[in-house]
Amino acid sequence: MVRILGIVFVMGVAGSIGYPNLVRATEPALSLTITNASSSALTLKVMLIIALVGMPLVVGYTVFAYHVFKGKVRPDDEAYCRKLRLCRGVYEE
Known about the structure:
It is a single chain. This protein has two domains: 1-38; 39-88. Helices cover 60% and strands 5% of the residues. The chain has helices at 2-17, 34-37, 41-69, 78-84; strands at 21-23, 32-33. Strands 1-2 form a two-stranded antiparallel sheet. The mean pLDDT is 83.
């Protein structure tokens, strides 16, 4: 935990040294600043809507897939045997 806090502290100090420049250039007019790097307000709004709609869909599908595929597969399960034809002559077609 102490290491993580140390890393966060060092990254915070390193980031705040150059504020508002993210990437400095030899000519100050060409530096990448926080303002230059940000998207437009419309783009940020659209991406917020996409995230608010998309994330519940992703989480819901993940929960559904986990529910469908939960549990261990045993070699003597009927579906497993049929699919791989591993059962001892029981499910021969």
